[in-house]
Amino acid sequence: MRLKIITSNPGKVREFHHALGSLGLDIEHANENCDEIQADTLEEVVLSCLAQLRFRELGDYVLDDSGLFINALGGFPGVYSSYIFRTIGMNGILKLLDNINDRSAYFECCIGCSFRGEEFVVWGRCDGSIGMHPSGTDGFGFDPIFIPSDYDETFAEMSIDKKEAISHRGRAIRELAIALEEKI
Ligand code: IMP
């Protein structure tokens, strides 16, 4: 079965390839454009993208909207994660947490899928905390400052296998695989 992954983020493409490839799915990258609306939740963004892409005859595809939610900052950057990463970056986030004891945070991933004309959404979440400084070179985005619960290393210090086993995206992709299996 062939599935397109629609994103401009090479880090996401790599993780989708790795996770879905091992499930026997053929993944093809498509750089299709979708305007990200300003919304309060990842799901709203995903549903809007599914609606925008509905009539473009793309075949079966998935798209992913994800974000980092920091509890002491009221969930910021959340749905604005991509913009915040490009502007103030990891160091800006670390500055905002200066002198704040509660460094707990979580990543959430919302995947939208269009399969044989049917659209659905799955989610994954990974709890953890924000480290004191960036550490590690693997992964992408905020990986060097995110330490998942029960681990003492950041996502960026983990192999792709290890990150996939516990990450928000790994969890959401496993939900996706279950949903697809039921539809085949
Ligand atoms: P979007 O889903 O394209 O809106 O982007 C979400 C942003 O959140 C990305 O640009 C990253 O900065 C960050 N992000 C999402 N998932 C991850 C992840 O697995 N690791 C690190 N950062 C992530």
Fold and architecture overview:
With 184 residues, this protein is an alpha/beta fold. The protein has a single domain (2-183), classed as Maf protein (Alpha-Beta Complex), CATH 3.90.950.10. Helices cover 34% and strands 26% of the residues. It has a 6-stranded mixed β-sheet. A hairpin with a 2-residue loop joins strand 4 and strand 5 (118-130). The longest helix is centred in the last third of the chain and has 16 residues, at 168-183. It is globular, with a radius of gyration of 16 Å. The mean pLDDT is 94. Inosinic acid binds at residues 9, 65-68, 81-82, 85, 107, 139-143, 155, 167, 169.
Topology:
Layout: E1 2-6, H1 10-21, E2 26-30, H2 42-53, E3 61-70, H3 81-87, H4 89-96, E4 104-115, E5 118-130, E6 146-148, H5 160-166, H6 168-183
Parallel strand pairs: 1-2, 1-3
Antiparallel strand pairs: 3-4, 4-5, 5-6
Helix pairs in contact: 1-6, 5-6
This protein binds inosinic acid (IMP).
Inosinic acid binds next to strand 3 and helix 3.
Search tags:
six-stranded mixed β-sheet, Maf protein, 184 residues
Count of individual beta strands: 6
Structural class, judged by helices and strands?
Answer: alpha/beta
In terms of per-residue confidence, which ranges show pLDDT below 50 for 5 or more consecutive residues? none
User: What's the helical proportion of residues?
Assistant: 25-40%
Please state the average pLDDT score: 94
Strand content: 25-35%
Q: What shape does the CA trace take?
A: globular
Query: Architecture, CATH level 2?
Result: Alpha-Beta Complex
